[in-house]
Amino acid sequence: MIAGILRPNGGRVRIGEDDVHADPIAAKQQLGFIPDRPFVYDKLTGAEFLRFVAGLYGQEGASVERRIVELLEVFELTSWKDELVEAYSHGMRQKLIISSALIHRPACIVVDEPMVGLDPKAARLLKDIFRQFVAKGGTVLMSTHTLEVAEAMCDRVAIMQHGKIVANGTVAELRHQNRAGDASLEDLFLKLTGGAHVRDLIEVLGGTT
Amino acid sequence: MKQPSVWHVLQPKWRTMLQRVREERARGGSGKLVILVSVGFVFWLAVFGVLYRILKYFRGVEELGPLLAGKLLGLVFLSFISILVLSNVITALSSFFLAKDLDLLISAPVDWLRIYLGEARGDAAALVVDGGADGGAHPRGIRRDLSGWRAVPALRACSPSSLCSCSRRWSARRSRSCSSTCSRPAAPATCSRSLRSSRPAGSSSCSASSGPSASPHPKGSATCSTSSRCSARRPRRSCRASGPPRRS
Asked: What are A151-165's pLDDT values in tens digits?
């Protein structure tokens, strides 16, 4: 919905001042979208793919070429620049997708499970990039099931259950609201979503074996 | 913001096509191409031969023959058009909603019309040509097989696709006529032309006025093909390829 792929039943999505559904072109111009299962054209090279995505955002010319070189260098894909995407590993594809989301210098990035398939070095690099992006005034909206990553990276966390936000705030605020002391985000999550009984069950089962 | 052109949206598709051609060449696939072209040529030659003989036989039948030939060609042509329309609609819808790159394109600031033209029209065009043989295969499969030699018919097939859309606004005769001229230089139309060109002088001028692409419309073709006899019996009826006969 945020990326404009689905139409909401109700409510509005605004990116900056632009409504995604009333003025999708202007809103999407500010958005970088990294889906959970990204699609990459196998028969394009890495550089061609980035050039294509830049073209979708109306960007072309020398500045795009410079940006492509810059991004491929950051993600250590320079030597693979002219190789077909079909030869890339999962992690390399993920890096390419992230590069494509950053190519038009968006104000906001929507990212779904960004760390899946990345090697530790690339995962660390991505965290640093996101932090730097936020430090420069950008916004990252990350959806993840890896609560350690969310706890380490996110300024604000929203926990959703059955399509509704059950808790929203910083990790400290969530702890305070739920009187959870120094509990981890995982414990908070289980407490809020009613998953605590699963842990009890495991303990019981562990006790009997 | 400057919108990307349709050509740009189609860029991955034609680049994919070129890459496949390159890979095919690198694998020494030109032999396969020659075989495919030869088989295709022999097939169409056989179709032409059979239809030519049938139509020639019909032409030999007194009075009824040319009318029968016209009806037959009309029937064949209408069948083709119906299949084309149906396959276009099905393919356009399925490829538009099931394309793997749809999320990528929709999440980008691209006008919906450009996405439609890039997605639906490209795949529909491919299916128009290939789908007949593949029995309505899934568009993804078509796209996978869309290597170089299929690109030309796929592009050519864009015209019947467009013409089918026009047929709602145009008269059936006009649409059929244009379709046969632009996009279906297949055996029926060729047979029709070859038969008409070998008619007696009195009717050949009539054929010329109806144009080489005159579709086998029952009224039009019957009027023309039997023109020498028609004009003898009904002198006031003008020999025209188009339009219903005037009331005498």
From this structure: 888 899 998 888 888
Spell out which residues of chain A touch residue B16, defining contact as CB-CB under 8 Å: 41-44
Q: Which residue of A has its CA nearest to B107?
A: A3
Map tokens 């995505």 to a residue. A53
CA distance B10 to chain A (A): 10
Q: What ipTM, to 2 d.p.? A: 0.81
Record: contact A56-B106, CB cut-off 8 A: no
Quote the distance between the C-alpha of residue A58 and its chain's center.
23
Closest CA to B72 of B204, B217, B203, B196: B217
- Give chain A positions within 8 Å (CB) of B111: 25
Nearest Cα residue in chain A from B106: A5
Asked whether the beta carbons of B128 and B160 are under 8 A apart, the reply is yes
Amino acid A33 reads F
For β-strands A164-169 and A157-161, DSSP reports them as antiparallel
State pTM to two decimals.
0.62
- Collect all residues with Cβ–Cβ distance below 8 Å to A56 and sequence separation of at least 6: B4, B8, B9, B105, B108, B109, B110
Q: In this predicted model, what pLDDT tens digit does every residue of B144-154 receive, in sequence order?
A: 333 333 334 44
Q: In whole angstroms, give the CA distance from residue B80 to residue B75.
A: 9
